[in-house]
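Before relying on records like the one below, remember that each one covers exactly one chain. Contacts with other chains, cofactors or solvent are not represented anywhere in the record.
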Amino acid sequence: MCAGGVKLGSNSRPSSGSFHVGITHPLQAHVSLEKADCCYPDRNIVTCPEYTDCPLHQQKLIGDLRTRRSVEHLFRATNAMISSEQIRLATTNDALCIGQMSRDFIESGLGWSWTPSRVLRAIDDKSSNVVVADEGSEVIGFAVMQYFDAESHLDLFGVHPNYRRKGVGTRMIRWLEKTALVNGSGVVYLETRLRNREAREFYKSLGYRVVQRVPGYYKGRESAIRMGHDLWSGVPLV
């Protein structure tokens, strides 16, 4: 756990100011929100409990939710799940903290791959989202998701040991999965260490299934288990 806002550069821009589906990130603008249409006449995106698995609403996620207003409602619905921690897009000032936490809690024994400079590149990459979970002024969780045409890949994910088993990781994953749906991705893939049974069980509880074993995935030092989650399978993203 480390304090957010450790300055690495001359500014602190969040992901080049974009939500990586070609839309200005809604949490950076203080705007009044209007009701968005929903497949149920008496609901909207904020109140509809089925907007992630309703077939009619899925069409809206891929179509209508490409507009700024609808994405703002999506974030409002997602943030309703957040408890004392806040999930947000990372800024350049978070890169050092994310890199250090990855080195200490995720990449131990593998060599430091997600250095602050690599995190900075991911923050600036319009095909990726880098997010953090804050508890007060402390960064307690982080994730990097990369988006492709029909699928997404969770490149990096971690929660400080003091905040595990408290729902922080689950809320971050769901945040990213809903973003993937907006981007049109139907499947999310990830890799975890072969020996990390605890991580596999966590992902399984969220709907992920083992796809394959990848020998020597981590710089030839350790094998990985690749897992995937079909976001269109009807499993509610709660």
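DSSP finds six helices and eight strands in the chain.
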